[in-house]
Amino acid sequence: MLDQIKIQYYSIPESTDIEMENAQATTFVVLKDKDWSEDNQNLLNKMLKAIKLEDHEVQLIPLSQEQNFSLSSLPSTDAKTTILIFGLTPTDIQLNIRATKYQLTGLECATLIFSDSLSTLIENPALKKPLWQSLQAAYQ
User: Fold this and answer.
1) 76 vs 34, 52, 109, 119, 130, CA distance in Å?
2) Class of domain 27-138
3) Given this model, what pLDDT does residue 70 score?
4) Is 55 exposed, middle or buried (0-12, 13-18, 19+ CB in 10 A)?
5) Which of 102, 110, 123, 135 is an S-S bond match for 130, by CB 3.0 to 4.6 Å?
């Protein structure tokens, strides 16, 4: 009906179903698939090992350009769930919240940490420190 009266409106894109390989995951890593190079994998693995996460506790979610992601795409989450988001903004993942990079953002369903992309972290090592501080606070 809105089309008939020529009113512009915003439609929320449907989120893509995410295939979960790890049902026991309590940490989800969301990033753009183009940011998933060998160097970036090594950096992420070092970070996850430094906060003492085991492979079975982590689920990687690389998103293609066409994919939409929302928290509802995840299996049941709770306050113990942590979502690390690299190179995406809250609106990119269908959230209408204000979140500062490298700060813990607590929601009922999870704790979120937004960060620059892994590539940006490699290019600018000074950004690793605030991310490391947030990771330490989230996994104490």
Assistant:
1) 27, 23, 8, 30, 29
2) alpha beta
3) 81
4) exposed
5) 102
